[in-house]
Design brief:
D-amino Acid Aminotransferase, Chain A, domain 1, Rossmann fold, about 35% helix, 3 domains, 5-stranded parallel β-sheet, Dna Ligase, domain 1, 6-stranded antiparallel β-sheet, elongated
Length: about 425
């Protein structure tokens, strides 16, 4: 669950992380006049559960009351990446001497807690990572300490001062903010706790002018006091469609149950050329979770940890042929997977429907000259004889669209071996054939 900026700032204030003076959140231009003691200039910020507000015109500096009404009206009419703005935060404007990025998150592959900071704040940290990776300091904490060790606080502070010497004037304040942000991350069961930017003001203060907190949905039951304090009903889960990836939104619309991207911002994700990224089309929710774990385990055991599962997916019981086809279309339109591992353990679901849907997707994509991703897997169970006959006939009739399809029929191999064989098949045969 992602919090709005004003909600995250309430938490920051409670945890002794300095924030700008808050004048309130409003939902109409008329409410501006009802706010007492507005000290201009102020900032008007569109409240949206998605990034990119600045580029979309969702942040405005406001110099007087009349300008405030116009700005609030404009902000409330905005759509940011297609999502409407319903609230505007008004807060103190700060004179800026410098901007810092500071964040705590969890590595999506290793699941280690990671502290990240940079003296180049105010822009996307992903852009900094691409253009100037040396400007980023990162520290993994595999032991997941409750409080940030002092030596790490000192190292992070020293790095920032080396990049921005004026920070030496606020050294102790900076150390306090780093420690408190990490404590906030741990205390409230967050997945992301981020300040971008942490401002160094002209009067040598450190102020978090932006705030991003994403709570772990699985731990919300432990945070009922926090949610109540923020005015969020602890019994209801806020459905943040703005947090969906494009592929999660597409899966939901297509009726594909429980699709989740395991990598952050897949559209922007930069692949490591030394790693193999595996998409998963399993036969059920439990099997989907098992498949993720098994891909990681096989990767660690046989391939030096260079294999990365990219998604969770559940077909649901007895999916239609069209739904099966959509599942494979979805992953082949996804920019990350090099290989798709699939398994149909037919019980309620039919192997015959499964293989027909998969082959339809491959044939349609081949005819349309769309991206083709190699598929390796196994099918066993209901309607297996019909599925085997259809697969063999299809390979004879249309060999080209099915060139990189390999399905093991029957249960003579456990799924761990299927995954291992699929990765070796891709590396030794498919990848070599595709390379110029």
């Amino acid at each position: 669950m992602r919090l709005y900026e004003y909600e995250a700032k309430k938490i920051f204030e409670h945890e002794d992380i300095p924030i700008p003076r808050q004048f309130g959140t409003i939902q109409s231009p008329e409410e501006v006049e009802k706010i007492s003691q507005l000290n201009f200039p102020i900032m008007g910020k569109a409240m949206a559960l998605i990034g990119g507000r600045g580029k979309a015109g969702g942040i405005k500096k406001i110099n007087d009351l009349n300008e405030a009404k116009i700005a609030v009206n404009d902000l409330l009419r905005l759509k940011i990446h297609g999502y409407p703005v319903n609230k505007v935060l008004l807060e103190e404007a700060i004179d800026i001497q410098g901007e810092i990025y500071l964040g705590v998150t969890t590595d999506p592959i290793s699941f280690d807690v990671v502290l990240i900071t940079s003296a180049l704040g105010g822009i996307d940290i992903e852009e900094v990572a691409k253009s100037n990776p040396d400007a980023i300091w990162k520290k993994s904490l595999p032991d997941n300490p409750v409080f940030l060790p002092e030596n790490i606080v000192i190292d992070a502070t020293a790095f920032l001062i080396s990049q921005f010497p004026q920070l030496n004037n606020v050294k102790e304040k900076l150390q306090s903010v780093i420690s408190n942000l990490y404590t906030t991350f741990q205390k409230y069961d967050t997945k992301v706790c981020e300040i971008n930017p942490l401002i160094v003001s002209d009067d040598s203060k450190l102020i978090a002018v932006d705030a991003k907190i994403v709570l772990d949905d699985n731990a919300l039951y432990r945070q009922s006091v926090l949610l109540s304090r923020l005015g969020i009903d602890p019994e209801s889960k806020r459905h943040d469609v703005a947090e969906q990836t494009r592929f999660e939104a597409r899966a939901h619309k297509a009726g594909i149950i429980g699709y989740l991207d395991l990598l952050p911002e897949p559209e922007k994700f930069e692949k490591d050329p030394e790693k193999l990224y595996v998409g998963l089309v399993p036969g059920g929710a439990g099997y989907g979770i098992f498949s993720i774990d098994e891909v990681v385990n096989v990767g660690k055991k046989y391939f030096d940890g260079r294999v990365v599962p990219i998604n969770f997916m559940d077909s649901g019981g007895g999916p239609r042929l069209s739904t099966v086809a959509k599942m494979f279309h979805l992953l082949m339109d996804h920019p990350v997977p090099d290989l798709i591992i699939t398994s149909r353990f037919g019980g309620i679901s039919s192997c015959d429907i499964f293989i027909r849907g998969l082959i339809k997707a491959l044939r349609d994509r081949f005819a349309a000259e769309q991206r083709m991703v190699p598929v390796y897997g196994r099918m066993v169970g209901t309607d297996l004889p019909n599925a085997r006959v259809y697969l063999e006939k299809a390979k004879k009739e249309t060999p080209e669209p099915l060139k990189y399809l390999h399905i093991v029929v029957g249960n003579q191999k456990i799924m761990a071996d299927i995954i291992k064989d699929g990765i070796e098949w891709f590396r030794l045969q498919v990848k070599q054939e595709k390379e110029p």
